[in-house]
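[Discussion] Sanity-checking designs against the backbone

I'm trying to build intuition for which residues belong where. Below is a structure token string of 203 positions. I'd appreciate it if someone posts a full sequence so I can compare it with mine line by line.
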């Protein structure tokens, strides 16, 4: 089975070994396209999924997680599970949060970059919450308690959608982890993914 995994903004496939490795160790065939924005990630992912005969796991970190959540909504019969880490679920909400970052902060730099390249309509159209509906596949959502880039509001949105629509949501909050996992967090993430992806596929 294919695991289709996406890196975050300004990152690369090589920098998400902590995400691709558990899937390789479970015997998945892994593809990790290089992307620039959510829209081109969804386009690239759509081409791959449409050419794939079997079921697919989608996943990603941060912006890449948003890509995965949209692909799960677009292909609910093919996507068996999405595995996302620190993923924005509502990009409009996320943009407002980033805007409140102080001058010179990473949050404000991300905000300035997004508004320089995307219209508000483009932000709305690449927001996963817009597409999550009935028959949505299970979601594994991992976040750090110290993430100051993507706040807990996004997980809370998924919780409400899960309750409303009945799809399975499996959560892990790692105490002290920020937006990007550090070496001390990697084993916890890998073990959690291995345990819960098997359950998603089997359900």
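Best answer:
Here's mine. Compare freely.
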């Amino acid at each position: 089975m294919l695991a289709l995994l996406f890196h975050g903004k300004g990152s690369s496939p090589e920098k998400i070994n902590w995400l691709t490795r558990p899937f390789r160790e479970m015997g998945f065939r892994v593809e990790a396209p290089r992307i620039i924005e959510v829209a081109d990630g969804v386009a690239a992912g759509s081409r791959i999924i449409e050419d794939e005969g079997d079921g697919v796991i989608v996943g990603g970190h941060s912006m890449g997680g948003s890509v995965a959540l949209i692909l799960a909504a677009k292909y609910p019969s093919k996507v068996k599970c999405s595995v996302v880490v620190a993923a924005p679920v509502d990009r409009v909400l996320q943009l407002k949060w980033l805007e409140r970052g102080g001058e010179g902060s990473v949050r404000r730099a991300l905000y300035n970059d997004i508004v320089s390249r995307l219209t508000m309509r483009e932000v709305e159209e690449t927001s996963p919450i817009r597409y999550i509906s009935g028959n949505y596949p299970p979601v594994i959502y991992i976040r750090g308690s110290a993430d100051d880039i993507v706040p807990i509001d996004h997980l809370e949105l998924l919780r409400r959608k899960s309750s409303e629509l009945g799809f399975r949501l499996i959560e892990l909050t790692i105490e002290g982890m920020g937006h990007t996992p550090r070496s001390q967090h990697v084993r916890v993430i890998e073990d959690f993914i291995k345990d819960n992806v098997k359950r998603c596929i089997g359900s």
